[in-house]
Amino acid sequence: MEISRKNLWRFLAVIAVAILLYLARDVILLVAVAVLISLAISPLIDWFQKKNVSRIYPLLLIYLSFICLVVFILSDIIPAVSSQFQEFVVNFKEIATEFIYAFFPETIAPQLSSGLELGVSKLVENTQAIFEIVFSVFGRIFTFITIAVLTFYLTVRENGVWEFLSFFIPVKYQHRAYLVFEKIKFRLEKWLKAQLLLCLIVGLLTWLGLSILKVDYSATLGGLAGILEIIPFLGPIITAIIAFIIASAQSKWLGLLVIGLFVIIQRIENDLLIPTIFKKTLALNPAVVIVVAILGAKFAGLIGIILAVPTVIIIQEVVKEIETLK
């Protein structure tokens, strides 16, 4: 009877913890993002520390650079998109009709034109929803401040992330947990370095291609492409849509050339960059990453998508550790 009571209490405790974690999921997500950012910038801060520079100075420099970048994008891209998007919607019927009648026989052109117009009208609706999601993230000042403050305190102290996490781990398990943490940290740092390199290359390719096509705001769009590359699957689509809208406002055919440019960049990324950059970095099944990203989007929105790959890495290392205990 005593054993049954213990098992019952353990079961109830697990249920209670699960409920608490679910209720606190928003806070947990903020902490997870702060931890991820801290792990991303810690190697740079550590390098400055080895040069006898206090950790606080490069950290403040990173914060200032990020603020300037966000202000630049918000003041440059959003006004352009908001005004030119309306113009794009108004002129879309004419753009679609000219395109269809230029490349297809007149016998099927009317049906294709009406079908394409209907399809893009749905895309426009979804695009507006995407814009609302992305811009609402930028608009959540309290969320950004919270993440910035947490990241600051996790990074300004050497081994600050582990000191924070170890507070929630019983002392007798801390040594083994620390070994797992170091493995996770090592893989996350490799992933982040590879991801930042990918963001840089994609951003430069986008800027170069748009500059050759003489699209307005090409430098800003290139920077935006690099930043949004951190969002799996969704980031490149958002950038392509924004660039298409801006280019279409300049010329009806320029928008189509921009779509072709992004298709080429995606092929270069998927067929060359990702296999080359990530070959020795991650051993992840793309299907697993997609499933986790979908689940993350379902439960945590944009943040859940961003945390998809780190989540898979953490699960892998924890499962490996559990298998060693058997």
Structure description:
- This protein has 326 residues and is mostly helical.
- It has one domain (2-325).
- The chain is built from twelve helices and no strands.
- The chain has helices at 2-23, 25-50, 56-103, 109-139, 141-156, 160-166, 171-212, 218-228, 234-250, 252-278, 286-306, 308-325.
- The protein is globular, with a radius of gyration of 24 Å.
- The mean pLDDT is 75.
Short description:
By secondary structure, the protein is mainly alpha-helical.
Topology of this protein?
Elements: H1 2-23, H2 25-50, H3 56-103, H4 109-139, H5 141-156, H6 160-166, H7 171-212, H8 218-228, H9 234-250, H10 252-278, H11 286-306, H12 308-325
Helix pairs in contact: 2-5, 2-7, 3-4, 3-8, 3-9, 7-8, 7-10, 7-12, 8-9, 9-10, 11-12
Total of DSSP H or I helical runs spanning 4+ residues:
12
CA-based gyration radius: 24 Å
- Multimeric state: single chain
- Structural class designation: mainly alpha
**What is the total number of structural domains?**
1
Order of helices and strands: HHHHHHHHHHHH
Largest sheet: none
N-to-C span: 28 Å
Taken as a percent bin, the fraction of beta residues is under 5%
Low-confidence stretches: none
Which word captures the global form?
Answer: globular
Mean pLDDT across all amino acids: 75
Percent helix range: over 70%
Q: How many β strands by DSSP?
A: 0
Question: Could you list some keywords that capture this structure?
Answer:
mainly alpha; single chain
